[in-house]
Amino acid sequence: MLEIRLPEGMRDAEAADWRRMGDITGEAFAEDPVNLWIFGRTDALTPVFSQLARHLYIPNGICHLAGDRGATMWCLSDRRKELGALATLGLVWTLMQKGSKGAAKRALTAGETMAREHPKDRHLYLFTIGTRKAERGKGLGKQLISPALAAADKAGMPSYLENSNPANTGFYMSHGFERMKLFEPGPGAPPLEAMWREPKPQDAI
User: Fold this and answer.
1) How far apart are CA 34 and CA 168, in angstroms?
2) Is 6 within a domain?
3) Cα(first)–Cα(last) distance of the chain, in Å?
4) Nearest partner of 24 among 69, 54, 79, judged by Cα
5) What angle do CA 29, 108, 172 make, to 5 degrees?
6) Which residues does the UniProt record annotate as the domain N-acetyltransferase (predicted)?
7) Residue 163, Cβ neighbours under 10 Å: how many?
8) CATH number of the domain bearing residue 145
9) How many domains are there within the chain?
10) Which DSSP symbol is given to 132?
């Protein structure tokens, strides 16, 4: 397990925080091209991310909150899990109710494609990072991403993410991520940008 030191104002998410995690993340991704292609409606974002936080990332991953302002969902690559049968049914039901026509199929296709493109080497995976709209431009993104990356550096572990919004490429590059490739999560979808970050040597930190 990584030794992550959180600054004042940040904490580990607990089991009861799944709704807050989903609400913050849903708001953060409201203008995200890939997620809008998958779900079709912004109404689906918060319930989908809430369920993923509840059933996958809080129990199996590394989730952080900065009050009600921002949230991150990480996971070590060798601890990544699939949704259980009941949770999958719940997610499909949510997509049918909240998403546009075909959202469940697009989500399944995107998930399969992302899994196929995922690097095999052990790494720290950043699933989501996001802030409330009112908190953008205040340096909160840096505060959210830095503790886990510092821990990865200390452990000599690389990191990986799929950037779903070109507007965020510069932010990720400023934290050491480099583009691996672009790939489409489904036919006609906006591209995802696979990004990789090698750990910084300790004497360079």
Assistant:
1) 13
2) no
3) 21
4) 69
5) 35
6) 114-203
7) 22
8) 3.40.630.30
9) 1
10) -
| Model confidence pLDDT, tens digit, residues 8-66 | 999 999 999 999 999 999 999 999 999 999 999 999 999 999 999 999 999 999 999 99
Half-sphere exposure at residue 121, Cβ-oriented, CA atoms within 13 angstroms: 9
| Six token digits for residue 4 | 């992550």
Answer whether 194's CB lies under 8 Å from 182's CB: yes
Answer yes or no: is 153 within a domain: yes
Q: Which two tokens stand for residue 200?
A: 């910084």
3-class secondary-structure state, position 39 = helix
Instruction: Give the pLDDT confidence of 119-135 residue by residue, as tens digits.
Output: 999 999 999 999 999 99
12 and 6 in contact (C-beta within 8 Å)? yes
Owner of token pair 């009112």: 134
CA dist., res. 178 & res. 121, Å (int)? 16
- The overall average pLDDT reported for the chain is 94
Label the pairing between strands 124-131 and 159-163: parallel
Q: Which residues of 49-75 are buried (b: 16+ CB within 10 A; e: fewer)?
A: bbbbbbbbbbeebbbbbbeebbbbbbb
2 within domain boundaries: no
Residue 145: which domain range? 11-204
- Alpha carbons 38 and 44: distance in angstroms, whole number: 10
Q: What is the largest CA-CA distance in the chain?
A: 52
β pairing state of 159-163 and 70-76 = unpaired
Instruction: Please check whether residue 89 lies inside any domain of the structure.
Output: yes
Instruction: Identify the three-state secondary structure at position 13.
Output: coil
